[in-house]
C-alpha cells in the first residue's frame, strides 16, 4: 500500500482528505505542524476520530524565523507580505517531506483546493481546483521536486459544501468547524496591533499628494497598502487612494486617481513548470493578489530570479511584497514577489 503523509490541522478539509486518500488506496499518516498556536489537542482529537496516527512536528523556531519575522520585516520595509505563500515553501511542505522521508512515504498531501496533473512527458503540473475555492495561488512557490510528491484530494470537489457533507457522512467531529483565519498567527486580524506588540510599529508621518503637498498625518506606514481607500481620514473633494508608500521619507502618497500599472518586476521567481520559460519569455494570465481575477500578460526573464511582467491592460494596485502568479489556463506556471 502507498504511504502518504497528510498535513492534519484539525480542520474539516484535512480530515475529509484523510477519508478520500484511504478510498484511493493510501496508507495515511498524519502530521500536525506545531508553531505555538495551541491547536495540537484538536488535531489529535480529529486524528483519533478518523483513526489516523498523528506525528507532531515542533516548528516554533522555524516558523518564527521564516514566517513571523519575515512578516514583520516586510511591513517595516513598507511592503505587503504574503505569509501563507512563504510558509508553504519554507516550513509546511518542508516538514511534510522530512517526515515522509523518515517513514519511507513517497507522497505528501494537504487539504488545499488544488490539483496535480501531468504533461505528455509525465512531468508534474500544479493546476487549479475545480472548486471556486481554488488555492493553487498559495502553492505557486513550490518547486516541481515537491509537487511531484503531492496529492491534493480536494482538487475535484465542487465546493466547500460538498466537503462538509462528506464530513457529516463520515461522522467527522469538525464537520461544521469554521474556516481558518487568513493569517493563522494573528487570529483577531489586527496586524497593526500585532506589529506594535513586537515593537515593530512604524512612526507617524505625513500624508502628501503627488506634488509633495502635506495633506495630514498618517498613523505609520504599516497601516496602509497601495490602492487602499478606506480608513484614511483625510477630507477631499473626491475619493482618495494610497498611491505609494515612501519608506525613505516616511510619507504616504495619496491621489484622487486609482492606482494602475502596466508593468511590474518580480523577484524570487519560482517556476513550477520551467519548460514554459525555455525561450526566456512566455504569455500567461497573471494574478497580482489572492483573488479569482487574472489579467493577460507577458513574462520576460531577467536573470537572478527576477522577471518583468507586462500587462495587456493596466492592472489595479499591484503591491510590493505580494505574490504574482502566472497561469496557462488551469496550469500554474509559477510566480514571484512583486518589487514594483
From TrEMBL:
Location of the active site: 87 (nucleophile), 184 (cysteine persulfide intermediate)
Region feature Interaction with tRNA, mapped onto this chain: 133-135, 289-290
Chain's role: Catalyzes the 2-thiolation of uridine at the wobble position (U34) of tRNA, leading to the formation of s(2)U34.
Protein name: tRNA-specific 2-thiouridylase MnmA
Residue numbers marked as site, Interaction with tRNA: 112, 322
Name of a matching Pfam family: tRNA_Me_trans_M
Cystine bridges: 87-184
All residue ranges annotated as the tRNA-specific 2-thiouridylase MnmA-like central domain in the record: 204-254
Domain tRNA-specific 2-thiouridylase MnmA-like C-terminal residues, every copy: 262-338
Species of the source: Butyricicoccus pullicaecorum
Main location as per UniProt: cytoplasm
Coiled-coil region(s): none
Reaction equations catalysed: S-sulfanyl-L-cysteinyl-[protein] + uridine(34) in tRNA + AH2 + ATP = 2-thiouridine(34) in tRNA + L-cysteinyl-[protein] + A + AMP + diphosphate + H(+)
Amino acid at each position: 500500500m502507498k504511504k502518504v503523509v497528510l498535513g492534519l490541522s484539525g480542520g474539516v478539509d484535512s480530515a475529509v482528505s484523510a477519508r478520500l486518500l484511504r478510498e484511493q488506496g493510501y496508507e495515511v499518516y498524519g502530521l500536525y505542524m506545531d508553531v505555538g498556536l495551541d491547536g495540537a489537542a484538536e488535531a489529535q482529537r480529529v486524528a483519533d476520530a478518523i483513526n489516523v496516527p498523528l506525528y507532531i512536528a515542533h516548528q516554533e523556531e522555524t516558523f518564527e524565523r521564516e514566517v513571523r519575522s519575515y512578516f514583520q520585516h516586510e511591513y517595516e520595509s513598507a511592503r505587503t507580505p504574503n505569509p501563507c505563500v512563504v510558509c508553504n515553501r519554507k516550513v509546511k511542505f518542508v516538514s511534510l517531506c522530512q517526515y515522509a522521508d523518515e517513514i519511507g512515504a513517497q507522497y505528501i498531501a494537504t487539504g488545499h483546493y488544488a490539483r496535480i496533473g501531468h504533461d505528455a512527458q509525465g512531468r508534474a503540473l500544479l493546476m487549479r481546483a475545480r472548486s471556486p475555492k481554488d488555492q493553487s495561488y498559495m502553492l505557486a512557490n513550490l518547486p516541481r521536486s515537491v509537487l511531484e510528491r503531492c496529492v491534493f484530494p480536494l482538487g475535484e470537489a465542487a465546493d466547500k459544501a460538498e466537503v462538509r457533507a462528506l464530513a457529516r457522512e463520515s461522522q467527522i467531529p469538525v464537520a461544521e468547524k469554521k474556516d481558518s483565519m487568513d493569517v493563522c498567527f494573528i487570529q483577531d486580524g489586527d496586524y497593526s496591533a500585532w506589529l506594535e506588540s513586537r515593537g515593530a510599529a512604524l512612526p507617524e508621518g505625513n500624508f502628501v499628494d503627488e506634488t509633495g503637498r502635506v495633506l495630514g498625518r498618517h498613523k505609520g506606514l504599516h497601516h496602509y497598502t497601495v490602492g487602499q481607500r478606506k480608513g484614511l481620514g483625510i477630507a477631499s473633494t473626491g475619493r482618495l487612494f494610497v498611491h505609494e508608500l515612501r519608506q525613505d521619507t516616511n510619507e504616504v502618497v495619496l491621489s484622487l486617481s486609482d492606482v494602475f500599472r502596466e508593468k511590474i518586476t518580480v523577484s524570487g521567481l519560482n517556476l513550477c513548470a520551467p519548460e514554459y520559460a525555455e525561450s526566456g519569455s512566455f504569455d500567461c494570465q497573471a494574478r497580482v493578489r489572492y483573488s479569482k481575477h487574472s489579467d493577460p500578460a507577458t513574462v520576460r526573464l531577467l536573470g537572478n530570479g527576477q522577471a518583468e511582467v507586462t500587462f495587456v491592460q493596466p492592472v489595479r494596485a499591484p503591491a510590493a511584497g505580494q505574490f504574482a502568479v502566472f497561469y496557462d489556463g488551469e496550469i500554474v506556471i509559477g510566480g514571484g514577489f512583486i518589487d514594483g
